[in-house]
Amino acid sequence: MLVRVNRKPFEVTLQGxxxxxxxxxxxxxxxxxxxxxxIELQAELERLMQRIGLDPEGRKFTPHVTLARxxxxxxxxxxxxxxxxxxxxxxxxxxxASCCFPARASTGGGPYxxxxxxxxxx
Length: 122
Description:
four-stranded antiparallel sheet, 6 strands, 122 residues, alpha+beta, single chain
C-alpha cells in the first residue's frame, strides 16, 4: 500500500534540541518544525495502516529525529546537558523518500533497519 503514496518532495526544518520523557527522560531529539506536507504525509500513512487492520497510533505525532537514547539519566542531567551543549542551529533538509522502519521489541526501539524506501514524486 505504501508504494501508492504519491507525494512531492518537501522541505523539513530541524530546529532545536529537546528531550522526550519528562521526569524520566528517554531520548534527546532534534525537533522538526511541523509543516502541512509533513502532517498530511503522516495522516495518509496512518490511514493506510488502519485500513490494513493496524491499531491507530495512540501518541500525538511529534516530528523529530532521535539523536540519543537515555538510560538512567535524570531530568536535571538532561536539562544541564541541553543548557550547556544544546545549541543546534536550524537545518533545512529536502528528503527524497520516506522509509519504513519496523518496530522491534528490543529496548530503545533499535536496531533500525530500513525495510523499504518509497520515493517522493518530483
